[in-house]
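Q: Structure tokens for this one, please.
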Amino acid sequence: MQRPRRGKLSARPQVDVGGRLIAVSNRVSRPSGGSAPGGLALALGEALGERGGTWIGWSGETTRRAQEQRLELTRSNGVLYGLLDLAEDDFHGFYEGYANGVLWPVFHDRPDLADHSHEAFESYAAVNRAFARSVASVAAPGDVVWVHDYHFLLLAEALREEDVAATVGLFLHTPFPHGQAFRTIPEVERIARALMAFDVVGVQTRRDARHLAESLASLAEGSARDDGDRFAVAAWGQSLTVRARSIGIDPAAIRRERDAAVSDEVRRYRESLAGRFSLIGVDRLDYSKGLPQKLDAFHTYLRNDPDRAADTVLTQIAPISRGTVPAYVATRREVETIAGRIAGQFGSLTGAPLRLLTRAYPRRAVAQLMATSDAALVTPTADGMNLVAKEFVAVQDPKDPGVLVLSEFAGAAEDMTDALLVNPRDIDGVAAAIDAARAMPLAERRERHARLAEVVEDTAISRWAIRCQEDLAEAAQP
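A: Here is the predicted structure, written as tokens:
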């Protein structure tokens, strides 16, 4: 079933952009003299540079009125960057009100935390239309538009309304919820119809692909067919391809960070371990990351054998995220309460088994801390992928690797089956996994790590970008 195209574009290109890739994301990573960009930013930048393309995102600035919104175009290293100012009221409703106040909790299996308002949805729709107008201003026949994440679920529909006759794909970096959770969103049918305006949607796992395909088909009384490596959805007279494409990291880049010069702080940290069994966690302070459950499990591990407190240390890096949102404030208080309980019961005059750090650390320092650790606790209650799991594996010494303890609810668990998989809400089970990680023989650690390292290489960010572009090219075929 072919979607009808709408002929000529309604807006003339401002520059010669014919036949290129146009990426759309909430924020844009431009080249700078600062720290190296993250994996996704690097992959997008490389894809755009190779094909010649445009990257459009929010400028970080707001205007008083929607009429003052403007798109600033700059070119660097063959890539055209389009930075869009947004009206202040629309931005807050779009970003804090709807994207992160409704979609984020629902997509992470916490619809009870969704704070819905009709006004926030209208702002979300208005920002999607503003981005569609920006894309229309630079798009030309033959271009491919690659949209990223839950901020822009309405964008393909808005682009069709702008008469942009392009192939439009979406990659969703979050999980996609099961059908009943998705239906808790008051605008669920509006969103579902808008998703059907995309040509192809990529998600992190087959579970997410199945949830998305079945949810769309159910809402429309349509059909969802599992074709093995994809789902084909027919709904409301339109067709959509859904593909599972696990995103990864740049393994070589993270190893370069590991091998770079060590700061005095990291050196002192390594010295402070003094032969202790070292665990590490690296998570934003977000309710989806399972931090209270992780600390409860560590507390249980210590209570099961109090002597462990003297020779075990868990370093939990948890930068504060969305610190004014009530649900995040509540999570931080819960985490700090449990941390205080552990310190009070198991701390001593000479040390403590838990180091909770609520500030961000540079990527290099984190890589070096992970490389030093005997085990990583990656235990979100819901996560689209979780690249920390892959970074931990990448920086380990294959001759003496650490052990990955991984939540079965992280997207990474679908492929990384040689980790110690746990249910993060099973406190005793996670405590037992810490014990198993500590006791694991070297030969088993090596075998598990070798298989996990294969997954990391196979899903490297460069390979993910190529596979996604192949999906877009396939969708563009008549």
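A few notes: The chain has 16 helices and 16 strands. The two ends are 11 Å apart (CA to CA).
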